[in-house]
Amino acid sequence: MTSEEAVLADQIAQLGREKAFYELGVLLAKQTEATLYQLVEDDLSRIEVAGAQQTLLLFKGGSALAERGQTQAGDTVLGAISSACVGQICEDNSSAEPDAPKWAVISDRLLGVLPQLGPRSIIDVAFRVLAELKTSGSLPAPCANFVPMLLDTLGAIGAVEITSADMRAGVDDSSGGGSVRRTGAELKAYWIESACTCKWHAQAAVRISAALRETALSAAQVERVAGRVLRQLDHVAELAELPAMVYQLLLLSRSGSKQTIVGGVLAYFDGLEQNAASEQQQNEQAQSSQQRWRDLGDTEGTVMLHIGYSIKQDFELGDALLAHASASDALSSFSFACVLSLARIHRFEKAATGALRELLLRGMHDRDMSAAAAWARPYLLVGSGSTGGGRLLRAVAERSAYGWDQVTQSLVHLCLTTLDSTSAKRSAFSASACAQAREACMRTLQTAFAGHEFVRGEIVGQIMQRVTFQTEGHERFLELLQRLARADTDALRPYASRIVDALDAVAVLAGATVERLVRAAAALFLDDASFRTSLLLVLRKVLFAHALDERRAALGGLFVLVDVAARAATANVSERQRQQRLAVLLEVVGLLRRSLTQQAEIRTAAYTRLAQLLDDPGAVQCAPLLQALHGIFNAEFAKYYQRDRAFDSPINFQLCVSPATHRVAMPIDAFLQCYAKLATRDAPPASGAAGSSAWADVCARLANAQLEDFELDADCDFTLMSAAGLRNHNTARLVIGSLDAAIAYALDGALHASGDPALVVELFTKFQRFADVLCTRSVDERGRRTIAGASELSQMTLPAVLRVLQFVAPDARRTDASAHALNTDATPHTWFVERVGRAGMWRANPALTRHLLDVALARVSSAAEPLTHAVLHLAYVAYSGALAHCTAAEQPAWLVERGTKGRSALLIAAEILAACSTMLSGRGLLDHVFVAVVRPQPQLFAFDADAPDAQPVAVVAQCAEQLMGALRTAVDALLALRPAMVRETVSLLAAQHTFALRLAHLCCRCADAPARAQLYRTLNETARWAFSLFGGDLPGDVALLRHASALLIGCQPFLQPESALAHGGVDLASSDQAEPPPVSRHMDDYEFGSLSRLVSSVCRATRLLSNEDGTAHDEDDEDDDETNLSVFTARTVPALVTVTVAWLRAELHQIDWAAAQLVSTMRRELATRPAQDDEDLHVTIRLERRICLRLHALSTLASQLLAARFAHASAGDQVLRMYGDLHRTFAQLTKCKLALTQVPVTEAYVDALALICTQLKSHADQIIVERFERLGAMNAEGGGAEKKHSGKKADKTGGAAAGKHGLRALLRSSTVVSSLVYQMEYTEKQVVLLGARRKTPLAHYLKRSSARDFRIRTADLAEPLLPTTEEDEQEMSDIAVPSPTDMDVDLDSNAEEEEEEDQNQDEPGGPRQKRLRPNQ
Length: 1416
Fold this sequence. Notes:
Blueprint: H1 3-17, H2 21-29, H3 33-44, H4 53-67, H5 71-91, H6 101-113, H7 119-136, H8 141-156, E1 160-162, H9 164-168, E2 180-182, H10 184-197, H11 205-213, H12 219-232, H13 242-252, H14 258-282, H15 287-313, H16 315-327, H17 333-342, H18 346-372, H19 389-399, H20 408-422, H21 431-451, H22 456-469, H23 475-487, H24 489-492, H25 496-504, H26 511-520, H27 522-527, H28 529-543, H29 548-569, H30 575-595, H31 600-614, H32 617-620, H33 623-640, H34 668-680, H35 685-703, H36 723-751, H37 757-777, H38 790-793, H39 798-808, H40 812-816, H41 829-838, H42 840-843, H43 846-860, H44 868-881, H45 893-896, H46 905-922, H47 927-934, H48 953-975, H49 982-1005, H50 1009-1029, H51 1038-1051, H52 1058-1062, H53 1085-1106, H54 1132-1168, H55 1178-1204, H56 1209-1235, H57 1243-1284, H58 1295-1334, H59 1354-1357, H60 1366-1374, E3 1383-1385, H61 1391-1397, E4 1412-1414
Antiparallel strand pairs: 1-2, 3-4
Helix pairs in contact: 1-2, 2-4, 2-5, 3-4, 3-5, 4-5, 5-6, 5-7, 6-8, 7-8, 7-10, 8-10, 8-11, 10-12, 11-12, 11-13, 12-14, 13-15, 14-15, 14-16, 15-16, 15-17, 16-17, 16-18, 17-18, 17-19, 18-20, 18-21, 19-21, 20-21, 21-23, 22-23, 23-26, 25-28, 26-29, 28-29, 29-30, 29-31, 30-33, 31-34, ...
């Protein structure tokens, strides 16, 4: 410092002490800018805090000048000081402490003097800061405090002359040289653009972002800054720095560009997730990879908190996040979790949860549709519509353990609501998609329950609430509760009291619900004494409730406890635990003993459940349980057993029927069923010997008994309308049930060589004779039978019947080959052959065999889940023991001999196979049938409460090929014996149809190429064989034709080449993938050829039936002479039309879905090609052309059905509904084309338009005209008949019925026609809009001249429409009848008006907005 500067510094200090700031300002105004610069530099270069005091005095002096009116002098002084301060801050930016107190003081002072600076000073300071930002990529912290106000002040100044010197200094060098005038706003925009263009230092990025964000920006500047900050995210070195950057972006979003910011943040973290996932996949065991994944989760969790806080401050940001999620084709796990965090805010809870639920279900539905629509799959983009909902839920649940725990509650709520929506009877999504969503949600809830204690109470509480108060859909929540209990009993233990509270409300619970609740709490029941006491107390209280249903429910829960306790008592545990569990078992059995003393209804239920319990191998291994039951049953049996042979009956049936009410007082038949099972189990020596001798006496005396021995005879009154008839009926049922129990005991004894096989035949003879008498004589007041057959009177359980059937109808391969898979150490070959020999006498009695098969068939539909093994075993026995003999040269007599109602053992076996396949298909276990029938395994037939493990697809494919081939051969053999074996053929075709649907599902989703090829081959052969059935001499049976056509339709997609089915779709990111098959008009010929010929035959037959005199000539006779039209009768044609129309409507549903994929396909294709590329969208156009050609092919089939003019009203209505669906699909396609602005109107679309809206429309109009003319005549006749009968009592078969029938037919047809007319109008509107927007003439395809050439004649319909009864008036008020005014549609040529009308017409079911005018 020079001496002059020192003197000046002393003067400044002196004036500062005297507070003479104006004089100080005058002194400073006399100094040069260089001197002022030097004073500031010398002062701020000092390290101590006091070094800034001189600079503050300089600021005060300059401000005093400005305040006294010397603006120019003050601006000069303050501008020089400010510029010097900024320069010193920038010079010390790299070395000085950014948070030093002196810099904070200087920054605050600069902020205060900004309003006093002139334009030139403001420009100099602003661009000095910009120069530092460009040079170092950093914004000094002191400058960051006043830069927002500096830029706002810069933008407020007027026009300024920018010289060449200013340009060299960096002030707006965009002019390229020379002097220019710039406004402050232009300079501010230039400053911001330069700041966004230059490189930012990673450590200063947050500071720069904050400074720019606090500046007042225009919408374009906000977009520019947001893009620059988003790009800066890629240069952040540490994950911990990301939340601060994201928070600055969220604050910036308050100024605009919310969609850009939200999408950019989510896209950035999506990329981080993908990189972390790939890194973890490459180094699964690396500790660094695991740690980085956890660090990323913590960072993302912090970002979610910032997002949630920002949305609470600005709700529009939440709307932007929801809009981004709704518009995305697929969400990543981070984006999914962000929407879940949004659901925590009450304002967005319902919308966010609904959007995610829709996203999950839509993704799974689209994946199923993509697999089912094999014709469209090669032309769809890979992953079209797939969001991986299960993967998303699993990822969020796993990541919630670290970092994402704040979304756990929202995740739980989403899963619970999804379970609710997918359990409803009606859903907009496929059943498979709903099942997948349910499974994914239950697994997610299991993960959340295991990992987070704070949500366990909510999960259990929500489960109990739904179980208690929901009458439908709560089964999934019970299954979830069972899974939670099975996975971690200790975690569920604190909430066990809620289960007891739910059971206490047993009055609103079903019996099955109580059982599943008790089974879920079984582990707690065994280990927790307090819970066990509470549960038994509740069950004991309910067991003696007033309502029978409540007692039955409690009884079911009690038997679950008996089963659990018996299994636990025989488990491999310590002696102390075994004694504790035995004590628990005896306590439960004591409670069970009390239930056996109640009313007959409760005892019947108890004996039935006890019989099922005794079929469980795990329960009967418990000796203490058997001993306790023997004690109970021996004492009870002694009350009714008449040992003295002086009595004709061994059982005192008089005690079993109440003499006052004549109702059953003791269900001795159900009791004896249980006692028979107990007698064949291991028992204490004394009771076992006594029981065996008593049973031998009972069987022998019942075999020789007559009806008269029970005070009955064949001519007795067995009806339920009189007291004597009621007593006789109940007595007969008890006698027949006792015979059934004796048969069960004798069967078991004869198989174990301790009984006489002939005794079984004698007992069955009595059973059959008594049952025939009761079935024949037991009729209602209308003379109809109340008992269908003897199998309805039997109480034998499925396992008991199955133990006998496997020997009565044995597998010949197992009998001949000792190496059979089922011949194990437990059941050796000699053991099986020996019992087959003992069952030979029973096989010689076809009636007994049919009875056993009938009983087994009746038990299949009601079989519980633990009996899955028995159903699989029964399917194996039915096929190997009966159906396998269909192809034999000479079928066994016991197999084909027919009994009552023309039923043979072969027919019942076929029905059993169909019933087993249907039942297991509903439980998702149909794959096991193929393996069980073709490759039986002991583990498949072993009792297990859990479902068997899934079978490998390759094994299923091999077994299915053998089974389907064998069934085709069996059907051919049965058809060769027609018409004798038609019903057997129908059942086999029904089973084949069920199998084919499952195989088609597997083939479309199979990743194993050899297995997929084998499945395709099986389905292809089945489809060709099914079509060949119609070319032969097929019987004209309705059920046979319906099932054959359904089988053909189920397999018809596999008539096309396998290469078309194997193509996985178009991958825009791959350059070496195989091209999809070229689109041509004959692509669907492979698939629809067989169906087209079938439809043509049906239509030909319809025309011939309508011209029975033979005067009409059929043009197709010469072209289709090979088809046998004799099978198409007036009864069979409607059934075939029903099946065909159902298939057509399903295919149209697939086209609807494929058309919806056009928009996303175009969006993805545009995103993958360069911006300057303006070539055609080849993938989108190819998909659109494939859809149009498919729709054209289906429309061709529909045209044949429309032209046939079916006389049957139901068939005609279905065809019209199908045509309405065709218009709805075409309207959906047209709406999608309106959104595809870059896709032209193709020739394929025009061809489909011409066919649907011209040719088919003419047929539909004629059908409608004929329909209303015929209905008018019918109602006129009905109205006349009604008048004749007026004043008289309405006759059900007279004119009143005819009038009512005509009215109902008219109303039904009016509904169909009105819906069809509306749909045609809506389609025409969409076509007109498309033609107007694309400047393409399309309206002339709409056939304006005959658009509505039918009319409803008011004069003909007015009289019949008058209601004649109160029921008619109710129908008239419930059903909207279309107006009878003759109207025509005005297709306005002005497309702009049509477009305005269509703005609110988004859905086919919306309000009609067509302008109608009456015909002139």
